[in-house]
Amino acid sequence: MSSLRHHRVIIASLFLPNTAVIGDSAPSSPDQSGTQTPGFASQTPASRQPLLQRNSGPLKSIVEDLKDKTRNPTPSLTPRGESANPFSSFPGLTLPSGNNAPGAVAAAAESLIDALSNKLSSGAAKTPGVSGVVTPAPNSARQYQTTHHGSNAGQPRVQRRQSRSSGNRNASRSLSSSRVDPGLRSQKYHFESNPHCNGGLKNAIESVGDRLRRKLWVGTLGTTTDGFREGLRRSLEWRMREERESVPVWIPDSDFASCYDEFCHQVLWPALHYAVPDAPKTKSFYESAAFKQYVAVNQRFADTIVAAYQEGDIIWVNDYHLMLLPQMLRDRLPGAPIGFFLHVAFPSSEIFRCLSVREDLLKGLLGADLLGFQTANYARHFRQTVSRILAAEALPKGIQLDDRFVDVGVFPMGIDVASIRQKKRDPEVTEWVNSLRQRYAGMKLIVGRDKLDVIQGVRQKLLAFEAFLEKYPEYQGKVVLIQVALQTTEENESQGGVADVVSHLNSKFSTLTYQPVVFLHTQDLTFHQYLALLTVADAFMVTSLREGMALRGHEFVECQEKRHRPLILSEFTGSYSFSGFRSCIPINPWDKRGTAKAIYQALTMSDEEATSRWEDLHGHVVTQTAQAFVTSFLVRCLRSNLEHMQSDTISVAALDVARVLPRYRHSQKRLFLIDFEGTLWQRDMRTIARNAGVGGNPSFEPPKEAIDILNKLADDPRNEVWLLSGLPVKGSLEIVAEKSPNIGIVAENGCFIKPRPDRGGKAAWISMVANFNLTWKASCLEMLQYFSERTPGSFVEEREASVVWRFWTEKNVEDHALDWQWARRQAAEAQNHIFDSLGERYGLRIIPGSTSFLVLPNNISRSTAVGAILHPGGPARTGALAAPAWLAPETTEDTDTEFDFVFAVGKDEKLMRRLNELDNAETCSSGVKGTDAKWKLEPEQVLPALQRLAETK
């Protein structure tokens, strides 16, 4: 972390942590610094009235406790008035009119929610709610909530219909309510914590504290800004930079609305969460006109960051709203360290390929030095998607592009454990804990906190809870589900299908003193009250259908430090993919019977088992912290940039043979490592096809000039010459071995090795894959044959331990543009199918080329073959494969060698990096990509350069 002290971090996120509110500042209070958790109501000042009115008689629930607290309001953080009863009825979740179900009338009359709606405190303005379920227009597009943990960003910043769930709340909570009258010319303003910001990111940055001394947030205010005159904007910019370490991005309201509400909500969010809508109602999904506004928003972010950038800054771009930003910044700041982190899930390539702008989004992301994901699965999905759509080489550590390498890593988010522990010790939390235990004595509490949209699976949770009450009737009247709901839009609630289930469930099981489901809203619930709920809960339930990281589950585990109650967690959350969280009770939210059984298991679990499970969960929570997330990402981003710049900024000079000759002359033991095809021998497509036997029997004739050079070099007793090739032994390299008997040969990219002849003149081929399972070849050939039949001119080269598919055989791409596009698409499809069905099962890797790709075992390469050549105990020296010590990790990078001069020429960058560790190595790249080699050499200059060395005495 110390390396970050010398760098400023520019954090780009759609919403800033703080926003500007027009009006005089609020009265001072201990919390005026604006550090309250986004999404929750402001904490009350220290001079507050007692939480509970002890003389008010017995209360029935937490809802009445909270409502009773509001009868003695205290100054808030801002001048915006709080509703006297913020926990009023949840319209749409009450019973529909005309419901004659048994007990419905009594339940409706005395239910916790309805009781609140009839007991408003004196002097409070009443705002009638809307009962029943509001059905959207038949052709309305599905609305998806796209906020994160602790965020309310689901509200648009331009005027739109108000959520039914917020119908009785003060309008100041809406983004659109912050609209400024354009006619106002002189206005005061103050700063507040922005409820729309990414709460998980904000808390993570704040958790690092002084260790990240210099930072600059870049984002929008989360309110309409068209009415802000120029003087007000300049004032805001100056004050926010000085007081809040922030720079606002000014975006026209219409552009922001189209980008955020249409493209982000209706296109990206559902695609990333496996919720691709069915056609034909979703033309906007596949042909979204809002992409232009998405580009415009990203461009404004780029303009703002470039203007604020200083040499040495690290740029950290966050989330799917800004997927085009990394490449925009790379075009204008070529040397800047740029990292991108995706806070949500990344889907399978089968889903992502449905997006009409898929290539633009992927190319935008690949402008970063480092791409971070929550889980290894999401990172793997991304690598496969890039390989399939862009036909780029996907490696375990990242993406190899033509001119650079992009690191891809896993950085799981966590919570600020120290902060949670500190807040748990607050007297207000203790008082609420005691109140809850008193009011729900003898009852079991299940707590959940979710948005009411389709993705969060709240409907599935309620259906499972109903199934639990039906299957285990002895728990009716003894278990309460307290659902903390993030505010969302009317369409989200309707599509989420929560209202009807709650109405049905409460009417079915409610009594005069019992209601099975209680809804609260984070906008009206203080974080202290929420921590109290987590502390007294007998189980916490997460039923997301897809989610990046369920940090609320981490908070529950930390709050259960004394009780150790279990966590019920969906298998489709990112948290579940980590081994530490496998001690939860896993559920498939689509299986309501299985989920009901999980609820019963949680409520009846013994203390010993619960403690054992909690210890595993807690060990993960305190290790995967917010601080670890921030530091690991930023350090890796900086390191990745330095590695890239070392290879990109240093111009590689053309090979100067005259400078190499003195060392060559005075060395006593020399090693030559020479690539064959593409370097020493330039084959055209006709030659390749003839060698592979296309249209007849295989025919192979190595070039005489190359053979002569190899023999001349090998004639010098001080030289050891090795030819590195991807060609097979049979019918190809065995002919080379006959014509050049004194050289060593590596065949099929390291699968086979022929050492130099011994004193008896014998040299047998050694198989490096003798212990490998090669049964995958039959299935691979069958797949490639399928694609060959659909790709004109393509053919398959079957080798002994590897397979090559040549998908393009024409010389001129311009004259066959459509065929070229089709061939590349088929190649990407073929690679994806082979990797998905065979790659992980058999341990294969795929190396794509410009007109072909190679499939071979994972742990075999020209670099490992060179390890066998350099190592004294390797098979190239001993002639046996019995002892694989030469392949051990601690020996493959050994820099000691018996050779005092090593000359390597070829296109294998992994080999070049390995040989650069040797002090006496001269590495020379014959490729067109960026290289880590010490020299560059055009392929047509390889033979003349070797000729000069061979003629030197």
What does this protein structure show overall?
This protein has 953 residues and is an alpha/beta fold. Helices cover 38% and strands 14% of the residues. α15 packs across α20, α25 packs parallel to α33 and α27 packs antiparallel against α28. About 17% of the residues have low confidence. The strands form 5 sheets. It has a 9-stranded mixed β-sheet with strand order 5-4-1-6-7-8-11-10-9, sandwiched between helices. Strands 22-21-20-19-18-27-28-29 form an 8-stranded mixed β-sheet, with helices on both faces.
Global shape: elongated
Mean pLDDT: 80
- Terminal CA distance reads 54 Å
Strand content: 5-15%
Total beta strands = 29
> What level of helicity do the residues show?
25-40%
Q: Tally the helices: what do you get? A: 33
Rg, Cα atoms, Å = 33 Å
Helix vs. strand class: alpha/beta
Q: Low-confidence segments, ≥5 residues, pLDDT <50?
A: 27-35, 44-63, 65-185, 881-894
Largest sheet: 9 strands, mixed
Question: Strand order within the widest sheet?
Answer: 5-4-1-6-7-8-11-10-9
List the defining traits of the structure above.
single chain, 953 residues, alpha/beta, 9-stranded mixed beta sheet, 8-stranded mixed beta sheet, 33 helices, 38% helix
Structural topology:
Elements: E1 9-15, E2 18-22, H1 62-69, H2 104-110, H3 112-117, E3 189-193, H4 199-208, E4 215-220, H5 230-244, E5 246-248, H6 253-272, H7 283-286, H8 291-308, E6 314-318, H9 325-332, E7 338-341, H10 349-352, H11 358-365, E8 370-373, H12 376-389, E9 393-395, E10 398-400, E11 405-410, H13 417-424, H14 427-439, E12 444-451, H15 458-471, E13 479-486, H16 490-496, H17 499-509, E14 517-521, H18 527-536, E15 539-542, H19 551-559, E16 567-570, E17 585-587, H20 592-604, H21 607-623, H22 626-648, H23 657-666, E18 670-675, H24 685-692, H25 704-715, E19 719-724, H26 729-739, E20 744-747, E21 752-754, E22 766-767, H27 776-789, E23 795-798, E24 803-806, H28 817-842, E25 844-848, E26 852-857, H29 862-870, H30 875-878, H31 889-892, E27 901-906, H32 909-915, E28 921-925, E29 935-936, H33 942-951
Parallel strand pairs: 1-4, 1-6, 4-5, 6-7, 7-8, 8-11, 12-13, 12-15, 13-14, 15-16, 16-17, 18-19, 18-27, 19-20, 27-28, 28-29
Antiparallel strand pairs: 2-3, 9-10, 10-11, 20-21, 21-22, 23-24, 24-26, 25-26
